[in-house]
Amino acid sequence: MRRQPLSTGPTTETGRLPRLLLLAAALAAAPAMAAPDNPPVPLPKPPLADRAPAVGPPVPAEKPKERQAPAAPEPEKKEREPAEPPPPPPPPIETEDKAAFDACTAELTALGAAFRTLPRIDDGEGCGIDKPVAMTRLSAEVAIEPEVTARCETLLQLARMTRDLVEPAARLGLPDMGRLKAVHQASGYVCRKRNGADTGKISEHARGNAVDISALEFEKGPVPMKIVASEDSDLAAAFQRALNAAACLYFTTVLSPGSDDAHRDHMHLDVMKRTGGYRYCR
């Protein structure tokens, strides 16, 4: 048996028609209202850079970095050379014993020497003579030229050597030259270093202990102090060699001509005191 649908009320075709017409009219009018003829064009979005930043807490400005001064270049490290020790101070001027000095001048007078005493010499740096003597004659017969200043002991030894050695040897070795008239000296007292150097020990000349002989003056002319070879056999060479050797009996230091470059043309004589009475002769 077929069931009939339940009716909700009386429905007629005339009641449904007006509602359908209203619905159709509304649907037809909707597109015209939704899409106008000239719809507005949307503006493009601004780029991110032009957008206003988001509001937030202020960010502190970055402090400028302090400029650092360039580091000073390190000095080159040099190897330190060991410092040379300072030279020892020069010895003080030797004080002359009065009794010995008086005995020395008395003997010079007995030899006939011409001399005079001078005031004390002190030139500093160890140079000087406590009781200097200036001499012009070694004896009544023999002069010393030019005048020489030295200690009395130095001049007395030269006077003795002249009397006891030079004059007798000259009569034998240089018989044709006549009598000895003078001894030519090249240096007596002078304040300087040894051999005229800029450094080193002071010379014995600076203490009045030395005298240099450059020539002997005879009646017939001068005889210079010169270098002689050991094989030279003439009398003049024998005379020079005799002086070179025998001078060491009177002086503690003898540097004969040619003994070194500083003594090529003269004879150096001094009375330097050495331990044990040692003498240096060449």
TrEMBL record:
Pfam families found in the cross-reference section: Extensin-like_C
Compositional bias per record (Pro residues), positions renumbered to this chain: 37-47, 84-93
Domain Extensin-like C-terminal positions: 103-282
Signal peptide limits: 1-34
Keyword field: Signal
Biased composition (Basic and acidic residues): 62-83
InterPro entries: Extensin-like_C
Segments of this protein annotated with the region Disordered: 33-96
Lineage top rank: taxon: Bacteria
The protein's name in its UniProt record: Extensin
